[in-house]
Design a protein that fits this description.
This protein has 280 residues and is mostly beta strands. The chain has 2 domains: 18-200, Beta Barrel (OB fold (Dihydrolipoamide Acetyltransferase, E2P)), CATH 2.40.50; 223-280, Ribosomal protein L2, domain 3 (Irregular). It is built from 1 helix and 17 strands. The protein has one helix at 208-213; strands at 4-5, 16-17, 33-34, 61-62, 75-81, 90-95, 100-104, 114-115, 129-131, 140-142, 144-145, 152-154, 162-168, 171-175, 181-185, 189-192, 269-271. It has a 7-stranded antiparallel sheet, with no helix packed on it. A 4-stranded antiparallel sheet has the order 7-6-5-8, with no helix packed on it. It has a two-stranded antiparallel ribbon with strand order 1-2. The longest helix has 6 residues, at 208-213. The two termini are 43 Å apart.
Length: 280
């Protein structure tokens, strides 16, 4: 989906904008909507625990079917819709009994296409969901389960996909969107194809107000603050104080691994995202 560029008569029309030509339905399905409460980044005591969250336009949450547990039942794609809660587009599918569900819209999926979910082997069509053990090597997949018979958690954002390197016994080797190579149980299911709306990362907000519509508050640089407010604050003029970039509480901001070394699933990683092989 190519982006569009307008003559910038207003700030919101600057740079590249999203092309919503793939969206075929403007109003969402009422039976698949729930209300969500905004926290403003605060916990149950009213204290800010997640900074720079606030405001945002009113929106309802679309219930997405990440489990795909209706096995061997064909569903027809009814519409492609915009979801304000995620970067990817969503597809409204209808089963033969009339039940409707939302799924992530893969690249190339069109209205009228048939998709199926199964625990066995299916045709390798875009949108079909099946176990990794039934897929050929080097196929691109998304919406991957990390544990069998749970919901999909891997490769769900716009334009992303993982690649199946191969299946070795009960394990399947995946090349993740980050470049990490790791094992996942071959019983885990995934959806064939790449997530659509791949040009999302090239969009430009155009103005600061649009970021506030998305619920993002402005960010104040640490070097622009006073020494009492930030470890990198203070100094005469623009200076970082000669130290490494850190958070207000002193946590290194660049390059420090945050994954727990004693995590049980570390033995499932073959190559880390930085290209280093894991020593066994």
């Amino acid at each position: 989906m190519a982006l569009i560029q307008k003559r910038p008569l207003t700030p919101g029309q600057r740079f590249h904008l999203a092309n919503k030509s793939e969206v075929t339905k403007e109003t969402p399905e009422k039976s698949l909507l729930i209300s969500i409460k905004k926290s403003g980044g605060r916990n149950c005591y009213g204290r800010v625990t997640s900074r720079r969250i606030g405001g945002g336009h009113k929106k309802l949450f679309r219930l997405i079917d990440f489990k795909r547990e209706r096995y061997d039942q064909a569903a027809t794609v009814v519409a492609i819709e915009y979801d304000p809660n995620r970067s990817a587009l969503i597809a409204l599918v209808s089963y033969e009994d009339g039940e409707k569900r939302y799924i992530l819209s893969p690249k190339g999926l069109k209205v009228g296409d048939k998709i199926t979910s199964s625990k066995g082997k299916l045709e390798y069509n875009v949108g079909n969901n099946m176990p990794l053990s039934e897929m050929p090597p080097s196929i691109k997949i998304h919406a991957i389960e990390l544990k069998p018979d749970t919901k999909a958690t891997i490769a769900r954002t716009a334009g992303t996909s993982a690649q199946l390197v191969g299946v070795e016994g009960e394990k399947a080797m995946l090349r993740m969107p980050s470049g990490e190579i790791r094992y996942v149980l071959a019983k885990c299911r995934a959806t064939i194809g790449e997530v659509g709306n791949e040009q999302h990362q090239n969009e430009s907000l155009g103005k600061a107000g649009r970021a506030r519509w998305l619920g993002r508050r402005s960010v104040s640089r640490g070097v622009a603050r006073n020494p009492v407010d930030h470890p990198m604050g203070g100094g005469q003029g623009k200076t970082s104080g000669g130290g490494h970039p850190v958070s207000p509480w002193g946590q290194l901001a660049k390059g420090k691994p945050t994954r727990v070394r004693s995590k049980i699933t570390n033995n499932m990683i073959v190559v880390r995202r930085n290209g280093r092989k894991v020593k066994k």
